[in-house]
Write a structure and sequence with these properties.
alpha+beta; 3-stranded antiparallel β-sheet; globular
């Protein structure tokens, strides 16, 4: 994943925009971002929109252990219902 800032900071010292290049659905880690750091599940919807879910380290481990053909969003929803 590539992360960059088009402008380093705004007048309040916070990033204006953060852009992520997501090559495929799956689990990604955001680093070097104090407020956004962590693991996320990114999924593309049938209409082409990208959705994401912040996930815990434990959820990340279980999602990465899921079979390759698994629907990761469904796996995550099932984990959160337990």
């Amino acid at each position: 994943m590539t992360v960059w800032h088009p402008r380093a900071v705004d007048e309040k010292g916070k990033p204006k925009n953060i852009h992520f290049i997501i090559e495929d659905d799956g689990v990604y880690e955001v680093t070097n971002q104090r407020t956004l750091a962590g693991f996320y599940l990114f999924q593309k919807t049938p209409n082409g929109r990208m959705i994401y879910f912040a996930i815990s380290t434990q959820e990340k481990d279980l999602l990465l252990a899921a079979p390759e053909e698994a629907d990761l969003e469904r796996v995550l929803r099932n984990l959160r219902q337990q």
